Amino acid sequence: MAEWICRTLRDGGLEGEHAPALTINDTIGCPLGSFVFDHILSQLSSFIFCQKSQSNGIVLVALSRSPLYYEQLLKSKGFDVVTSSTWFKILDCYTDPLGWRSKLVESGSIRSLSSGSSLTVNICKNVKDLDELFSSILELGKELSGDGKGRFTVAIDSVSSLLRHTSVPSVAALLSNLRSHDQVSSLFWLLHLDMHETRVTAALEYMSSMKATIEPIVQSVDGPRGNSENLSLMEQNLRRGKFCVRVKRRNGRVRMMFEELSVEKSGIKFTPLSSEDEMTAQSLVPKVQFNLQLSEKERNDRANVVLPFEHQGNGKTIQIYDGRKSLNDDKAEMQHTSVQKVDSNRGEIIYFRDSDDEMPDSDEDPDDDLDI
Amino acid sequence: MVSVDKSPAPTAPPIQPLGQQTYVVVQPPAPPTGIPIQPGHQVQSSVLAGPWSTGLCDCFSDVSNCCITCWCPCITFGQIAEIVDRGSTSCGASGALYALIAYITGCACIYSCFYRSRMRRQYMLPEDPCPDCLVELGRGGDGDWVGTAMTMGLGAGEEKWGKGVPLTRRVGEAGDEEGGRWGAPATGKGSSSVTYMAATKPRTTSFSRNFSAVSSTAPHAPGLKHGPNGTLFLSSGIPDLDKILGGGFALGSLVMVMEDPEAPHHMLLLRNFMSQGLIHHQPLIYASSAKDPRGFLGTLPSPMVSKDDKSRVHETEQEKGLRIAWQYKKYFGEHNSESQRDGKSEYCSNFDLRKPLERHFFSGQRIDCVSLTESTDLATFQEHCSSFLSQTPRDNGNIAGGRIAIQSLCSPQCEFSNKEWEMLSFIRSLKSLVRSSNAVSVITFAPSLVSTAFSKRLQHLADTLVSVKAIPDEDKELAKLLTGYQDMVGLLSVHKVARINTQVPAILEATTFSMKLQKRRSLILECLNQAPVDGSSGASYASSGSCSGSSKTGALDF
């Protein structure tokens, strides 16, 4: 539930607690992660703009998309770019992550180094030094609030880009430092699962408190083969996807939520999932072989069992002699000493009563008289 | 449980001389028949200078001996000679000699007379009713004397001995887990003739146990407890876990907790472990990947005051009609826990997770907090641990028991998290360190953060292996499967229990337990009460529902 996530990020973390951290995972099968990222960013921006959230501003570390893009995003959402610099800061790691362009500027090959964005941006020239990155983030965050004590949200555009330059332990250290910092109220980042080994993604999931995965709704069977079916499926996956969220709650339980997301011209939309596909809880607890309930099939089978003394109901009234003269029987035609019961499908059972002293209901289903 | 050793044990050297005489062990003359000698029964009834089982003239009380003696005295004589000579002459040799003398001289009474007096001297038999030689002559020197001797209870059938303290005991009591050294040599043989010329020492039993110095006195430290096989336990801080593990964490063992990245339950285990150590004044090292590990000490729980520690509320469900008692097991254990609670309050306390530990427990204690992110490798930390543990004061027999708690060893912030072999060698050396310094180390790690091969290696290194797992929230299916789902916070599985000094494995009744916070305060572990489900795909044999032996995820199955 995207709304739920946005609210959690908006509310931030409690005092002394680690800030909630969201990781948005997407795969090549359904590469809608950046859309989700933008959506969450814009939602948070609106919360912050209306001053409904714990944090005063957002610090965005732009690694895979230019600051211009974000400027346009804000514009499209209706925010005024000029005033938004009070609550929206970008750390530009996109223009010159390794410092090559500044070297070129020094040598005079290119004129200037600018991203073309009017948003105040700080340019980071050395992405590899994560300590510096950390301190720049904190600096920007301090600028967001007047007294430098307010809390802010950090968004990292793509941790995958960060992982290209540095090692996993340093990225993990950066994230954990951000989370444990007092001034960071919440944190979220985007990660492309296919680009990394499972250990790396496991490490990043370890650092996060919420994990949102975008999966294709329909898995294509043959992979990248270019069937017409497959192509249409793949095209579908470019627009629609399943949004699964796993949240680590404070009491130690894991909450899972599912939604369907679709990307349209107007934006992204989240709708509740039509078919619930939940993890079977049976995998968690040990297997037990002791079943008391009957399954549907078993119930049907039980109903179909023909009991030998049961009246099947063949439409005729059956006169049952119960061994004593009742008033009705006096008027009945005859008094037999034997009783015949006819099963509709089976053979006949001819029963000779032993004595008249027997209880009349001992060998007959009393409901037979009712002839239901 | 006791298996009788059917083969003759090798002769045991005399261990303790009792009186002036030493034990002599005689090889069995015949192949063992597998009947163990249990002289203890007879010994207990007739102690010390008890009378012989038969008198001089009771020749016919032992019929078999009498027959042998009458028809073939040399055999009997040979056996007596062997006994009297204590094995220096063999039965066959002396028997043959007797036969030879009897044949040649016709009067073997002289030879037997000689042996008779020797025997009498040895066993201090009164010269009654008449002196030796006369008896010899009177008997005509034939087997009567020998028969007499036999009826006196000497000979191959040592069962009839009334004197001496034979200390044979059944070899093969391997199942006896109550260690300790036995005070007497254990020479169990099939049907051997073991002679003990023991001086009469007052003993009511045939063997005595020598306690080793450590175990003879109860450990003075309140935090330690004796366990089977001469091990010492210290408490994990969670009474239920102590019970499950058979007493607690064994000193010298390495406990590993496999974390679930989605749940912080391993912190609960660590907190209780550390608090228990502080309460018992045991030295503690805590290491984690946080920048300031000291902060974690502030979250340690305080023990519950006894008046708060009421007995667990047994929420007996209202019996609405007939219910099938597949949950019957949960009603059993609670009766026992009541009685044990008082005695155990010193060893293991119930912790109130909502109350922080008081300050005075931190002062004057040896507590070290180390941040794992400080250095790029584990060598410094290893040095730190070894120096810390070597400083543990070790009085004579008074072992304090140190505790090492390492949280999230493989967490990705640490520089060495990529270097798996380094971590492995660190844990190996830590294990030997802990074993030699009688400490307990609890390490938590998340198996998903290391490769599967290394995860397996780490699991194998552990002496006690436990894993915690998160449970989904608001899961209706799970709520149907498990009763008490609302109170559960997670699942705990016990994969391995440390067995030190023994080869007998611990087979637990159940390996998966639910972790619950009782009244949001104390951590309790309960057996899973599962609703019966169609487990046709399951592998384990049917248990009536409450606990099952198999753990849930196949990867962690041992």
UniProtKB/TrEMBL annotation, chain A:
Residues 335-372 are annotated as: Disordered. One of its GO terms (cellular component) is elongator holoenzyme complex. GO terms for biological process: tRNA wobble uridine modification. The keyword Signal does not apply. Transmembrane segments: none annotated. Its main location: cytoplasm. The keyword tRNA processing applies. It holds the Pfam family Elong_Iki1. It is found in: Cytoplasm; Nucleus. Residues 343-354 have a biased composition (Basic and acidic residues). GO terms for molecular function: tRNA binding. Keywords: Cytoplasm, Nucleus, tRNA processing. Pathway: tRNA modification; 5-methoxycarbonylmethyl-2-thiouridine-tRNA biosynthesis. Residues 355-372 have a biased composition (Acidic residues). PANTHER family: ELONGATOR COMPLEX PROTEIN 5 (PTHR15641:SF1). Belongs to the ELP5 family. This is Elongator complex protein 5. The lineage of its organism: Eukaryota, Viridiplantae, Streptophyta, Embryophyta, Tracheophyta.
Automatic annotation (TrEMBL), chain B:
Pathway: tRNA modification; 5-methoxycarbonylmethyl-2-thiouridine-tRNA biosynthesis. GO terms for cellular component: cytoplasm; elongator holoenzyme complex; transcription elongation factor complex. Keywords: Cytoplasm, Membrane, Nucleus, Transmembrane, Transmembrane helix, tRNA processing. Residues 535-558 are annotated as: Disordered. The chain crosses the membrane at residues 95-114. InterPro entries: Elongator_complex_protein_4, P-loop_NTPase, PLAC_motif_containing. Residues 535-551 have a biased composition (Low complexity). It comes from the Eukaryota. GO terms for biological process: tRNA wobble uridine modification. Its main location: cytoplasm. It is found in: Cytoplasm; Nucleus. Belongs to the ELP4 family. This is Elongator complex protein 4. It comes from Sesamum latifolium.
